[in-house]
Design a protein that fits this description.
Residues 1-10 have a biased composition (Polar residues). InterPro entries: MFS (IPR011701), MFS_dom (IPR020846), MFS_trans_sf (IPR036259), Tet-R_TetA/multi-R_MdtG-like (IPR001958). Keywords: Cell membrane, Membrane, Transmembrane, Transmembrane helix, Transport. The protein has two domains: 19-205, Growth Hormone, Chain: A; 228-419, MFS general substrate transporter like domains (Growth Hormone, Chain: A), CATH 1.20.1250. 80% of the residues lie in helices and 0% in strands. It is built from 17 helices and no strands. The chain has helices at 2-9, 18-41, 47-53, 59-91, 93-112, 117-130, 133-143, 150-176, 181-202, 209-214, 217-221, 232-260, 266-296, 299-317, 323-350, 357-385, 388-419.
């Protein structure tokens, strides 16, 4: 079966099919990522309420299970993503998108039928292990399309993540009170299954046979390592630090806003509003940063600038500001956050051999996932050790550390472009 899939994936596209095929690819990837992120994020803000519905009692038990359930998909993805990426390089990235959508459908059914917190966590772990639609789609987008527009492709791809993160919590909040959340999960499972079939038929992956035939047998035996990517080690640490700060802010932010807003029920409303504001800015920023990376050819500089923007906007939020004053800060944070992952993926994709782009992008994503899972796990206990504004400053410091760690690779990128003008848009084969 592997051989058959590999053979199909390597069939080259006809010249007249490329433009239409690329547009269809982006549309299908966008839909898949939107459904995946909406299904993943719809539970995050309301996780404590849903856990109480299926059996947790007491604040400590509910918060403990909530922290584990929120972090579970990222923890599983950290391990699974590089493995799926390597398999995608072998049998075709298209089939990793299909596999991820089918995995999402199975996980959503498990979560919809969960009657205990343990079963819910099992479903979330399954979502991370078998799913990873965003990661598979990013690997596909980062390895297809023209070299000059690869940044735009990644930007459009990540806009779906922002849209799903914006719509998911709104839908979850509407359905959790009426007891219809399980039905919504089953609807998402059905949509994922339909999209999986559609992607199996509709996604067009450029042929890779020419690239493979150009490699010698000894070259194929020596699997390229991401350590060969310029600045790989420093960028790995920078990615972990930046995502630690951004995602570590999530459990801290509600506590901080509650200390600022004194009206009954006002804090929860403002948390929802500010959450939507941030992801709305991320949605718009995804397109802008993608074009910016293609025009400048310097994704690492973009990463550093966006990490700095996140650090500053998070640090100022720690001040005792009126919620209205937090809106522009959340807009800045969301806009800057939109650049982090896509810029990292673009850099790793550009320095990956043609037949190993999926593995390189997946490995880069695993760095982000480490920070994404570690941030919330550490932030919860941190709030118990210090006031909420202090914990917010810690998260801002993590983003600032990401900036500092990226400075050397940024300088190397600048020198490389000065020595080889136009190299920013060249992808190695």
């Amino acid at each position: 079966m592997t051989r058959a899939l590999s053979t199909r994936a390597t069939q080259p596209l006809r010249p007249g099919e490329r433009e239409g095929g690329h547009g269809r690819n982006l549309a299908l990837l966008w839909a898949g990522q939107f459904v995946n992120t909406a299904g993943l994020m719809m539970l995050v803000p309301i996780m404590p309420f849903y856990l109480e519905q299926i059996g947790t009692t007491g604040l400590a038990e509910t918060q403990t299970w909530a922290g584990v359930a929120i972090a579970a998909p990222a923890l599983a993805l950290t391990v699974a993503t590089p493995l799926w990426g390597r398999l995608g390089d072998r049998i075709g990235r298209k089939w990793m998108v299909v596999r991820a959508l089918l995995g999402l459908a199975v996980a959503m059914v498990v979560m919809a039928t969960a009657t205990t917190p343990l079963l819910l966590v099992a479903g979330r772990l399954l979502q991370g292990t078998l799913g990873g639609v965003v990661e598979a789609a990013a690997a596909f987008a980062g390895s297809t399309g023209s070299d000059e527009k690869r940044g735009r492709s990644l930007g459009k791809s990540f806009s779906a993540t922002a849209a799903g993160a914006l719509a998911g919590p709104i839908a979850g909040g509407l359905f959790v009170g009426s007891g219809g959340l399980q039905h919504l999960m089953l609807v998402i499972a059905g949509a994922a299954a339909v999209l999986a079939v559609t992607c199996a038929v509709g996604l067009s992956e450029p042929g890779r046979s020419a690239a493979r035939s150009a490699e010698s047998t000894s070259q194929r035996r020596r699997r390229p390592s991401v350590r060969g990517v310029p600045g790989a080690a420093a960028l790995a640490a920078a990615a972990i630090a930046a995502y630690f700060g951004v995602y570590g802010l999530i459990p801290v932010y509600a506590e901080h806003v509650e200390g600022v807003v004194t009206e009954d029920g006002g804090a929860s409303v403002w948390v929802g509003v500010l959450h939507s504001v941030m992801w709305g800015a991320t949605l718009l920023g995804s397109f802008w940063w993608g074009k910016h990376n293609d025009l400048t050819g310097r994704p690492l500089r973009t990463f550093a600038l966006s990490a700095a923007g996140c650090a500053v906007s998070i640090a100022v939020v720690a001040l005792p500001l009126d919620p209205f004053a937090m809106i522009p800060l959340r807009l800045v944070q969301g806009f800057c956050f939109a650049a982090l992952a896509q810029s990292l993926f673009l850099h790793f994709s550009r320095h990956a051999p043609a037949d190993h782009k999926s593995g390189f992008v997946s490995t880069a994503n695993s760095y982000l996932l480490i920070g994404q899972s570690a941030g919330p796990l550490v932030a919860g206990p941190l709030v118990g050790l210090m006031p909420a504004p202090g914990a917010v400053f810690v998260m801002a410091g993590a983003c600032a550390l990401g900036l500092l760690l990226a400075l050397k690779p940024v300088a190397e990128e600048k020198h490389s472009l000065a020595a080889h003008p136009g190299a920013g848009n060249v992808v190695r084969s």
